[in-house]
């Protein structure tokens, strides 16, 4: 309390009420690849807000720029609803995985929530992008499946092939030479920090509209992620969405082929006669029995973790007592209640959707003596209705229909 020495009336501003937790952005992408002009701003994260800006920067200095997978991905990103991305211009796969050259320069950009290396489909590239996202724990990887349509025969057998390669003494050699199917599907990410999509799409070359080319889908998918986040929220699975700019697919996956690919975490881009070309999968590279098998669940938890971490920095060095515990519980509960009202959490009441515990049980004397304050949070995320089943039976009085989701 201040010292009052002179008689009079004093008016003070007293901080009270909750400190609102704001949700962080989830749609900023980071692309690493070869630009049309490979010599421009190499190994530097460049913020890009439009396709025109990308061409002004990375297409400059070339009389007639040649298309690249990176250019196709950035074009597809903005075409499908993306608003902001970072581009890192690197020359080859060695620089992609090099320290402070490719993916490494994105580590300092907290804004990035989606990472892709368009066109890089080798086991080393897959592992590099996944390892980057697993290290950062605040972003997910979108990986391109194999470029050739013939790979579908190996992809449908990928589980058995990967097991054989892992048991083989020269498994590394097989993966590098492409003799096995191990390189066709990226490795597992147990915490679900990545998703892979197959096949590549066919569309107009963004640098030559008269030419139809085969393009990696990762950039278009990153735009779809951003579009779904803006229209529905990060909790909505970015699937059953139209791929803008896709005029065809390099391979038309059948229903039976997807029945083998989907359990292995390979998301298919399907052509439907009436609905057009759509994203028809929302799985991560986590095991099928994992709680992280859906990409929207992984991205929702990424957003919640990052939002709470950024908005509760005021807690640091505060007195670790009951007042602080109540303030933390109040602020986090208010944030999660808002998510529940938006449909991101499952439950008819907030109590069913989440819990927040910060009290003497989570903060005993030994924890407080260590300078720590521990808050336990539990969430019940909404998961996609991946399989919609209509059970139809004929009754005595007519037809009975039961709908299950």
UniProtKB/TrEMBL annotation:
Region listing for Disordered, in residue ranges: 165-186
Domain Tail sheath protein C-terminal: 290-392
Stretches assigned to the Tail sheath protein subtilisin-like domain: 111-285
Similarity-based family: Belongs to the myoviridae tail sheath protein family.
Name of the protein described by the UniProt record: Phage tail sheath protein, putative
